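Following up on my earlier thread - several people asked me to post the actual chain instead of describing it. Fair enough. Here it is, all 123 residues.
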Amino acid sequence: QVQLVESGGGLVQAGGSLRLSCAASGRTFSSYAMGWFRQAPGKERSLVATISWSGTGRQYADSVKGRFTISRDNAKNTVYLQMNSLKPEDTAVYYCAARQGVLSGLSREYDYWGQGTQVTVSS
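Reply from S.P.:
Thanks for posting it. Predicted structure:
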């Protein structure tokens, strides 16, 4: 089993920055592809970014390219999402997810999920 705990969400003004962290349990964290997804009220859960087990493969949603950066530190069993130039439309609950295998942008292919952390961006 893998347990994921997100942190770092909060309220920020448009144009500001937040850094989300996802702490993962387990001794085999480095073998998992990781992803960040988000869900706003009334909307489907959607891809934000993914990162391969090695950290060399990454995917980003078009809406966040150039603004968000996903990274991981396998020694710390942690994945990060640095969010810059935040926009009101980034407001959502952000979820960390893990899957054993190659990276995927599909939420249904992820096996483990954190509880989510709220990100609110004011105008």
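The chain has no helices and eleven strands. That should answer part of your original question.
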